[in-house]
């Protein structure tokens, strides 16, 4: 009875139901029926004499047991002394043979009917229909490869509980975040120790530790150069003017110096295969050949360069003479055979060497292939912010000990802020969706019904750093003067988009996700707007309309 008439389990699932429960119920019912059938046949086969021998003692045992079990009740019941007699009066001391056969035959027939009925029920019962999902469950959007399960039950006699969980059908593999069981009160968690713990938690990233060690050394050096630029005569244009990079931009003295500092720091790690920079015309292949003397006495494993680095050594360098914050942006790809270039990419580049083609194959990858990305901000303090694909962490340089200290763990961008950072002087040159979007932010007619304020430094690193910490929107959209935007995809837009997305925000051109764009050349430009998830969704909706 408990099998077929029990209350249904409150089981809500968006995935397929488990078919084993019906088989379990049938197995129990069939086993019970067979047991009754065998027991009845055994009783029917016994003689009347044997039955008479055990009838009276059984009745007496039953009566005695029942009297003992009712002992607490007898103490409060005036009619209790007659209970044992009443029980014994209804237990027969013997049964005639013909009566025994008359009882066994219907019992045997009943057992057979029960077995047959269970078989019929098994094959003709209606299919189990899942209960309708409650409203809170319907509000949950679950990817196809996942399922939601809601289970209700009783925690105790008076408290009911309900649990809802989203589970994945396949194991997700990612970066393990470092764990710090204790810290030094005087130094805190340094960047060096942070990367050591990352390498211990993720053995595959051990080589990345040396890369970050070199990057932080280069950033400390650049911070010193920027701070002393006016004193050491490193302001102004390179070679007194006239020196331009591949983008046609006049190079500052610090552009050339900082590019050399960062390029050499990365080269000396022995882990770089290719380096691409804003200040370099083309990607540069790194020679990782070790000195011949190493092979005589020491067994050396030559890696050949596992990573590709792309960087802007001094973003916002046009502001450096005025003491406005500037920064360094970098992105790191893994060296692999996953080339994203079209088969016809090199058809019109017949004069290009095979070595250069190999460099481009390694370098021209979308942002979703990045292994790590980050920036250093040289301002009132020197900040180092980066991601390895498992959240964003910020460090501040303690100049007294020469170490970056963890000061902003697990940075998160709120879905909506109250600041927009954009060059409004170009407003009339934007397309209509962008104009309407900024107008909504300024007058408070946006989805969040907030009136935004405008804050614009003109240095991407500084503006994005504020957006990460305070929320809001940063953008450099396309306009009639720069129809493809102004920011470079490979070493500016993609690394910064990786950071924003890892912090919970979004990044778009207005029509497509920046991280999904395949670069066509090293210095390709794209429009860019990034910020909180709600803010960017509103912009995309305007472009879609």
UniProtKB/TrEMBL annotation:
<dbReference type="InterPro" id="IPR000146">
    <property type="entry name" value="FBPase_class-1"/>
</dbReference>
<dbReference type="GO" id="GO:0006002">
    <property type="term" value="P:fructose 6-phosphate metabolic process"/>
</dbReference>
<dbReference type="InterPro" id="IPR028343">
    <property type="entry name" value="FBPtase"/>
</dbReference>
<feature type="domain" description="Fructose-1-6-bisphosphatase class I N-terminal">
    <location>
        <begin position="189"/>
        <end position="409"/>
    </location>
</feature>
<dbReference type="Pfam" id="PF18913">
    <property type="entry name" value="FBPase_C"/>
</dbReference>
<dbReference type="InterPro" id="IPR033391">
    <property type="entry name" value="FBPase_N"/>
</dbReference>
<dbReference type="GO" id="GO:0030388">
    <property type="term" value="P:fructose 1,6-bisphosphate metabolic process"/>
</dbReference>
<keyword id="KW-0479">Metal-binding</keyword>
<keyword id="KW-0119">Carbohydrate metabolism</keyword>
<dbReference type="GO" id="GO:0006000">
    <property type="term" value="P:fructose metabolic process"/>
</dbReference>
<comment type="pathway">
    <text>Carbohydrate biosynthesis.</text>
</comment>
<keyword id="KW-0460">Magnesium</keyword>
<dbReference type="GO" id="GO:0042132">
    <property type="term" value="F:fructose 1,6-bisphosphate 1-phosphatase activity"/>
</dbReference>
<dbReference type="GO" id="GO:0005986">
    <property type="term" value="P:sucrose biosynthetic process"/>
</dbReference>
<dbReference type="InterPro" id="IPR020548">
    <property type="entry name" value="Fructose_bisphosphatase_AS"/>
</dbReference>
<comment type="similarity">
    <text>Belongs to the FBPase class 1 family.</text>
</comment>
<keyword id="KW-0378">Hydrolase</keyword>
<dbReference type="GO" id="GO:0005829">
    <property type="term" value="C:cytosol"/>
</dbReference>
<protein>
    <recommendedName>
        <fullName>fructose-bisphosphatase</fullName>
        <ecNumber>3.1.3.11</ecNumber>
    </recommendedName>
</protein>
<feature type="domain" description="Fructose-1-6-bisphosphatase class 1 C-terminal">
    <location>
        <begin position="413"/>
        <end position="543"/>
    </location>
</feature>
<dbReference type="Pfam" id="PF00316">
    <property type="entry name" value="FBPase"/>
</dbReference>
<dbReference type="GO" id="GO:0046872">
    <property type="term" value="F:metal ion binding"/>
</dbReference>
<comment type="subunit">
    <text>Homotetramer.</text>
</comment>
<dbReference type="InterPro" id="IPR044015">
    <property type="entry name" value="FBPase_C_dom"/>
</dbReference>
<dbReference type="GO" id="GO:0006094">
    <property type="term" value="P:gluconeogenesis"/>
</dbReference>
């Amino acid at each position: 009875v408990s099998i077929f008439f029990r209350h249904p389990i409150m089981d809500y699932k968006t995935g397929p139901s488990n078919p084993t429960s019906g088989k379990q119920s049938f197995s129990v019912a069939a086993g019970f029926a067979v047991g009754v059938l065998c027991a009845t046949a055994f009783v029917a086969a016994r003689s009347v004499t044997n039955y008479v021998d055990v009838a009276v003692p059984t009745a007496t045992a039953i009566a005695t047991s029942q009297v003992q079990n009712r002992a607490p009740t007898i103490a409060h019941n005036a009619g209790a002394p007659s209970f044992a007699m009443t029980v014994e009066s209804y237990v027969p001391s013997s049964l005639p043979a013909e009566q025994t056969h008359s009882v066994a035959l219907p019992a045997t027939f009943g057992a057979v009917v029960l077995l047959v009925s269970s078989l019929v029920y098994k094959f003709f019962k209606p299919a189990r229909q899942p209960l309708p999902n409650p409203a809170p469950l319907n509000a949950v959007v679950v990817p196809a490869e996942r399922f939601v399960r809601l289970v209700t039950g009783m925690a105790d006699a008076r408290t009911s509980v309900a649990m809802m969980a989203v589970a994945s059908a396949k194991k997700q593999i990612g970066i393990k975040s470092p764990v710090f069981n204790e810290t030094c009160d005087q130094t805190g968690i340094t960047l060096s120790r942070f990367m050591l713990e990352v390498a211990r938690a993720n053995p595959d990233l051990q080589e990345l530790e040396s890369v970050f060690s070199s990057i932080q050394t280069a950033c400390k050096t650049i911070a010193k150069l920027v701070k002393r630029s006016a004193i050491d005569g490193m302001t102004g244009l390179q070679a007194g003017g006239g020196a331009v990079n591949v983008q046609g931009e006049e190079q500052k003295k610090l552009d050339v110096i900082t590019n050399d500092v960062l390029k050499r720091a990365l080269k000396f790690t022995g882990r770089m295969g290719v380096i691409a920079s804003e200040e370099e015309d083309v990607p540069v292949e790194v020679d990782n050949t070790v000195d011949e003397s190493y092979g005589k006495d020491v067994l050396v494993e030559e890696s050949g360069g596992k990573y590709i680095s792309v960087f802007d050594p001094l973003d916002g360098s046009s502001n450096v003479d005025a003491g406005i914050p500037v920064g360094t942006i970098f992105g790191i790809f893994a060296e692999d055979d996953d080339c994203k270039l079209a088969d016809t990419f090199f058809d019109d580049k017949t004069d290009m060497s095979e070595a250069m083609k190999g460099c481009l194959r390694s370098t021209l990858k979308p942002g979703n292939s990045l292994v790590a990305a980050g920036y250093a901000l040289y301002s009132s303090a020197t900040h180092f912010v980066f991601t390895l694909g498992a959240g964003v962490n910020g460090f501040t340089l303690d100049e007294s000990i020469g170490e970056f200290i963890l000061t902003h763990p697990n940075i998160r961008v709120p879905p909506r802020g109250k600041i927009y950072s954009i060059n409004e002087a170009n407003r009339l040159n934007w397309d209509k969706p962008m104009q309407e979007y900024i107008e909504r932010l300024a007058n408070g007619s946006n989805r969040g019904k907030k009136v935004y304020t405008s804050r614009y430094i003109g240095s991407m690193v500084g503006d994005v750093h504020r957006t990460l910490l305070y929320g809001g929107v940063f953008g450099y959209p396309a306009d009639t003067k720069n129809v493809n935007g102004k920011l470079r995809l490979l070493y500016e837009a993609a690394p910064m988009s990786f950071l924003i997305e890892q912090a919970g925000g979004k990044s778009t051109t207005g029509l497509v996700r920046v991280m999904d764009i395949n670069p066509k050349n090293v210095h390709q430009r794209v429009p860019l707007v990034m910020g909180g998830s709600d803010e960017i969704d509103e912009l995309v909706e305007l472009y879609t309309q």
